[in-house]
Specification:
Elements: H1 9-12, H2 19-25, H3 33-53, H4 57-72, H5 80-87, H6 90-98, E1 135-144, E2 154-159, E3 180-184, E4 190-196, E5 201-202, H7 208-215, E6 221-222, E7 225-231, E8 238-244, E9 263-264, E10 268-269, H8 272-278, E11 284-288, E12 291-293
Parallel strand pairs: 1-11, 1-12, 8-9
Antiparallel strand pairs: 1-4, 2-3, 2-7, 5-6, 7-8, 10-11
Helix pairs in contact: 2-3
Bound molecules: fe (ii) ion.
Length: 298
């Protein structure tokens, strides 16, 4: 760099051999050190990748088309870029690197379907607004890592229906905010709600990400799960899933989101008295999922 802020002519001349250095040098005046580090590293990896695979003009143009179509597919209720990140394992990698477990409930991907605010509901409410599917009682408690209950925690849940679709995917078929709810834990940190057992489902395959999966012989399915996002003051929030034990695709999740600690049995309860107490038809399924939050660092 000379005194006029221009790059030295010789050092700045672009060549295949020195392309990373030349482009990285162009970021020398970036005032934010974190942005500088990210951009120079990104350019380094991108250039190394292009050289490694000897990318052709046609392949570069195809990549631009692919990314353009990925962006064009996005809408308020469809996030194709998150899907792309998910199927490439980047979402899970970011999640895993940023969220140590350390005694708390393990986290997993948020996924692309938390696209509307969940409606606040009373404890025990039924989030299956259309009543379709196998009835299920979900109970649990939110505690700190020392086991102390966390009253007043918000427990945000959302899930697919018995056919494997979220409400936003079927606005003509499902009631608005079906199978979504925002609950607040009671004085003992407990929560409970009624729902139906979710089904495994394919991530949307009618866009560029679907074509990517098809071209690589991968199936698009996710094992059955209920999404949880749990928050409370003075604790680190956790975004996670509760997986249904025995669901198809538990060992080959298209987005790599399964962690063994998040899998639970959903046993059948055949007991008219318990069904009446739960305000569910008999028999019904049930699951218990305790959520452990880590305290915020002081
Ligand atoms: Fe999901």
């Amino acid at each position: 760099m000379n005194t006029d802020g221009e790059m030295d002519t010789v050092a700045a001349r672009f060549s295949a051999e020195h392309s990373e250095e030349v482009v990285a040098a162009s970021f020398a005046n970036t005032s934010d050190p974190r942005l500088h580090r990210i951009l120079t590293s990104l350019v380094g990896h991108l250039h190394a990748f292009v050289k490694d695979v000897e990318l052709t003009d046609e392949e570069w143009a195809a990549a631009i088309r692919f990314l353009t179509e990925t962006g064009a597919m996005c809408s308020p209720v469809r996030q194709e870029f998150i899907l792309l990140s998910d199927v490439l394992g980047v979402s899970m990698l970011v999640e895993t690197l940023n969220h140590d477990t350390d005694g708390g409930t393990e986290s997993t991907v948020e996924g692309p379907f938390h696209v509307v605010d969940s409606p606040p509901r009373e404890l025990g409410a039924d989030i299956a607004l259309d009543g379709k599917g196998e009835p299920c009682l979900v109970t649990g408690a939110v505690t700190g890592t020392d086991g102390s209950p966390v009253p007043g925690a918000t427990v945000d849940v959302w899930q697919a229906n018995a056919d494997g679709f979220y409400d936003v995917q079927q606005p003509e078929l499902q009631p608005e905010r079906n199978l979504r709810g925002l609950f607040t834990t009671d004085d003992e940190g407990r929560f409970r709600f009624r729902t139906i057992v979710p089904r495994y489902y394919p991530i949307p395959t009618d866009g560029p990400v679907g074509r990517l999966l098809e071209a690589t012989g991968r199936h698009p399915n996710r094992p059955a799960h209920i999404h949880f996002d749990v928050r409370a003051g003075n604790y680190r929030s956790v975004t996670t899933h509760l997986f249904v034990a025995g669901t198809p695709y538990i060992d080959s999740d298209a987005v790599f989101g399964v962690k063994d600690s998040l899998v639970r049995d959903f046993p059948v309860v055949d007991d008219p008295e318990r069904a009446a107490a739960a305000e569910l038809p008999n028999p019904f399924r049930t699951v218990h999922f305790d959520v452990v939050l880590r305290e915020n660092p002081t």
